[in-house]
Specification:
The protein is mainly alpha-helical. It is built from 7 helices and no strands. About 15% of the residues have low confidence.
Length: about 160
Amino acid sequence: MTRSLSALRSSGPVPQALRRLLLLLLVVALAGCASSAKRPAQTATPASEPSRQRVESQEKAPAPGPAAGIHAEAEKALDHGRAAEAEILLERALRIEPRNPLYWHTLARAKFNQHRYAEAVQLTRKAESMLGRGQEDLAERNRLLMARARIAGRMP
């Protein structure tokens, strides 16, 4: 065996080719591990329309910014029917980021879920006034929420 090791060492290009092959195999193996990582299971959303009394989130993309974690907690509270808790969290998020239209919209949803329709309409207007370019989806959800709040509260 000593002879074979010394032969490999002295031959020059063979060990270098072997090293490259081993490195390539290592990269391929690591890439395979990364692609087979478990992803969280996605649950199917019911096809039924959300109830008139409770408005669900239509988009679950995380909000960027310093209060994103608080907003995520508020979304979770809304999803579990805890609108009053969500309201408190959103007020805290808005103290940190008062110009974030998504937070105002989510607060309007919390008010709607508490049957406070006039406040929900006011907050959707506030959110609408802060919308920027590229926020057409939020603008549409905002208009829908405002219309639903007006109907539920029997407002013109």
